[in-house]
Design a protein that fits this description.
Two copies of one chain form a homodimer.
Chain A lengths: L4 H4 L4 H4 L16 E3 L10 H15 L11 H11 L6 E4 L1 H13 L6 E4 L6 H7 L4 E4 L19 E4 L11 H10 L5 E4 L20 E6 L12 E5 L1 H11 L9 H11 L2 H24 L3 E2 L6 E5 L5 H10 L2 E3 L11 E4 L3 H15 L2
Helix pairs in contact in A: 3-9, 4-9, 5-8, 10-12
Subunit structure (chains A, B): Homodimer.
Catalytic activity (chains A, B): L-histidinol phosphate + 2-oxoglutarate = 3-(imidazol-4-yl)-2-oxopropyl phosphate + L-glutamate
Protein name (chains A, B): Histidinol-phosphate aminotransferase
Chain lengths: 362, 362
C-alpha cells in the first residue's frame, strides 16, 4: 500500500527504515507440489492428535484459562528428549521468535556479530530490528563456512548448521573450535535442519558457557503449523532469554501448541523413522538429479541446493512453477543460479524428476 | 537463580537492566477458586471445538505445513464481527504481543508517551524494552483518568478502557476529545475488557487517522488459553504493525489459534449471551459486597476493584487464599488497600461471599 509522508509521521522513525523478512509463499493452488518452504512431507506423530483431543475435552473448557506462562510440561518433554536439564530449555512461538529473543538478549553489543553472507535471511532483519551491529563473512567458493574467520573480535556469532540454503553441515569439532576461540561471546548454533543427518551441538552445552543451540519442531517434527521452537543453553543464558520473553509476552505458547509439541517429543520412535525416510528420499533424489547434470551441494538437511550449469535457475524455477511445482529461488548474489528444493516423499520427488526429464529438459 | 557478574558479560547490557512483567499466578491447587487473572467462567463457543477437530482431520496432516503468515481467515472474521475492513485488522499472539508491536511501531519517539499511574503494568515493561520515553499521569482521587492531562505534548498515548485494575470506563466522547487534542500522536485504546458494558472506540477508527484500538479474545471470548489478540486502525497504521511483525516473527498465529478464533468470531450470539451473564453476575456480586461494607469502584469490566475500609487488603487476600480463593492483590502505592476480583459464575461468586461472611469477617 502507499503511505503518504504525512501518515508516516505516526510511525516510530526507526520503523520507517525496516526491511522485513519475506517468507516463502503459501499458495493455494490445486494439485500443487510445494517444495519451497522445507516442510516435512509426512504428518506429525499420531500422538499429537490424541493430545489435542484431550485439550478439547469438556467443551474445551480449559481454553478459558491462561496457559502455563512457563510451558513447563513442554520444557520437561524437550529436556527428556534432548538429555539436558529443564533449566537448560527455553521455548518460544516458533524458532523465529526464539531467534528474535536471542538477538535481543545477547547481541546488542559494542562489537558486531558475525554470520555468513549466505545464511538464513532473517538474521539481517533481526539485526536491524534490535540495532545489532553486524559483520558479514563470505562463505568460501565451495559455499562452506571458513571457521578461522570466526576468530576475530565480535559481539556474538550465529551459524546455521546445517547452513541454509546451502544445506552444508559443519562437524561438531568445527563448532567447538569456534566456541573455544570466543570465550567472551555468545555463539548461537541454529539447528533448524539438524535432524536430517548432521551432528547437534547440544552435546557441547554442558561444557561451554557461551553456547546457545536453537531448534524447531517445524521441520523434523512436521509441526510447522504449530509454531514451537526452543533453545538449549546453560541456565545463565536461559535466564537472559526469559527476561526478554517476560518483557515482551508472558504467554507465547498456547494450550494446543504445548500439548501437541509435548506429544511429539514423547514419540521418539516415530520422529526417528520419519527423519530416516526423508534422508533416504534425499539420497535418491540427489542421484537422479546428478544423473541429469545437476550439481548438488552435499546436503545434511531436508532440502538440497542444486544448480544446472546449462540452464538459468530463475527460468527453471518459473518453468517448474508452470508444471505446478514450486521450489525456492533466491535472486541474490552468488546463489542466483541455484534452486533450493525441499525433499518430498519418493512419489513427490519422482514427479519433480519426471517433470524435468520429460517436459522441461526434454 | 543467581547469575554471577562473570556470566552477566554474555547478556546484552540493556537486557541486564530489564524488569520483566509478572503475570498473575496459575497455581495447580485442587478445588481452587481462581478469581485472580480475569478469565471467563464459561467455556468458549461450541463451534471452537468443531473448528479444532477440522484441523485434526487426516491425522492432522495440515500441521506439517506453515500457517498463513497473514492469518487472512482470522482477519476476515474479525473484520466482519467488528464491522470494519480487512485492511483495518492486525492480529497477534495475544494482545500482549500486539501491544508490544504497538510500542515499537509508534512510540519510539522524541517526546514521551503518556499513560496513567494506575493501569496495565505491562506498559512500563514494554517502554523499557523498546527504550520508549514515558510520562506517567496520575488518576484523580476517584481513580478516574483526567482527560485534560492528555492534551500536553507527547510521543503517543495509551489508555486502557475500561482501565485495569480500576475497572472504570471512559465514555467514547472522552476518547474523542483525546484524539482531537493529539492530531500528531498515535492514541492507543486498549480494550481488553470492553465487552462487559463499556463503549468501544472501534466506531471512531474511520474518522481518526491517529487511533489504534486493541482487543483480545482472552476475556470475553473465553480463549485465554489460545493467545489471540488484535488491533483495529486505519491501514497506514496497520502497515507499521505489519512491518514490525514481519521483522520479528513471520508466523505468530498457529493453525489451531487461527481456526478456533475464527469460529469464536463467527458465533456472535454465544458471545453476547456469555457477556450478559458475566455482567448480571457482576451486578449481583457488587450488591452483596457493598452490603458487607466493601467499597467497589464502578465496574464495566469482568472484574471489580474493591476495598474494605475496616480491613487490610493484603491480609484479606491472604485469608481468602487460605480458603482456596485467589484474588489479585497489588502491593503498590495508592491501590494497596484494594483487591481485584474476577467475576465468576453466580455459584463461584456466592462461594466468595459465603467465605467472607461466614469465615473471614464473621
Amino acid at each position: 500500500m502507499n503511505i503518504t509522508t504525512e501518515q508516516m509521521r505516526f510511525w516510530s522513525p526507526e520503523v520507517r527504515e525496516l526491511e522485513p523478512y519475506i517468507p516463502g509463499e503459501q499458495p493455494k493452488i490445486q494439485n500443487l507440489l510445494k517444495l519451497n518452504t522445507n516442510e516435512n512431507p509426512y504428518p506429525p506423530s499420531p500422538k499429537v492428535v490424541a493430545a489435542v483431543q484431550a485439550v478439547l475435552a469438556d467443551s474445551a473448557d480449559v481454553l478459558r484459562l491462561y496457559p502455563d506462562p512457563e510451558a513447563s510440561a513442554l520444557k520437561h518433554a524437550i529436556a527428556a528428549q534432548q538429555n539436558v536439564g529443564v533449566a537448560n530449555v527455553f521455548v518460544g512461538n516458533g524458532s523465529d521468535e526464539v531467534l528474535a529473543h536471542i538477538f535481543k538478549a545477547f547481541f546488542v553489543q559494542q562489537q558486531p556479530i558475525l554470520y555468513p553472507d549466505i545464511t538464513y535471511s532473517f538474521y539481517p532483519v533481526y539485526s536491524q530490528f534490535f540495532a545489532v551491529k553486524t559483520k558479514v563473512l563470505p562463505l568460501n567458493d565451495d559455499f562452506e563456512i571458513v571457521v578461522d574467520d570466526y576468530k576475530q573480535a565480535n559481539g556474538g556469532i550465529i551459524i546455521t548448521n546445517p547452513n541454509a540454503p546451502t544445506s552444508i553441515a559443519l562437524e561438531v569439532s568445527a563448532i567447538e573450535e569456534v566456541l573455544q576461540a570466543n570465550p567472551n561471546s555468545v555463539v548461537v548454533i541454529d539447528e533448524a535442519y539438524v535432524d536430517f543427518g548432521a551432528q547437534s551441538a547440544v552435546s557441547l552445552v554442558e561444557k561451554y558457557e557461551n553456547l546457545v543451540v536453537c531448534q524447531t519442531t517445524s521441520k523434523s517434527r512436521s509441526l510447522a503449523g504449530l509454531r514451537v521452537g526452543f533453545a538449549i543453553a546453560q541456565p545463565h543464558l536461559i535466564a537472559a532469554l526469559e527476561a526478554v520473553k517476560n518483557s515482551f509476552n508472558s504467554y507465547p505458547m498456547d494450550r494446543f501448541a504445548i500439548a501437541a509439541a509435548v506429544a511429539s517429543f514423547e514419540d521418539q520412535a516415530y520422529f526417528e523413522a520419519q527423519c530416516q525416510k526423508v534422508i533416504a528420499s534425499r539420497d535418491k533424489l540427489v542421484m537422479e538429479l546428478e544423473s541429469m547434470g545437476f550439481k548438488v551441494l552435499p546436503s545434511k538437511a531436508n532440502f538440497i541446493f542444486a544448480s544446472l550449469p546449462s540452464k538459468n535457475a530463475g527460468e527453471l524455477a518459473a518453468q517448474l512453477r508452470e508444471q505446478g511445482i514450486i521450489v525456492r529461488y533466491f535472486n541474490k548474489p552468488r546463489i542466483n543460479q541455484f534452486l533450493r528444493i525441499t525433499i518430498g516423499t519418493d512419489e513427490q520427488n519422482q514427479r519433480l524428476v519426471d517433470s524435468l526429464k520429460n517436459d522441461i529438459l526434454a
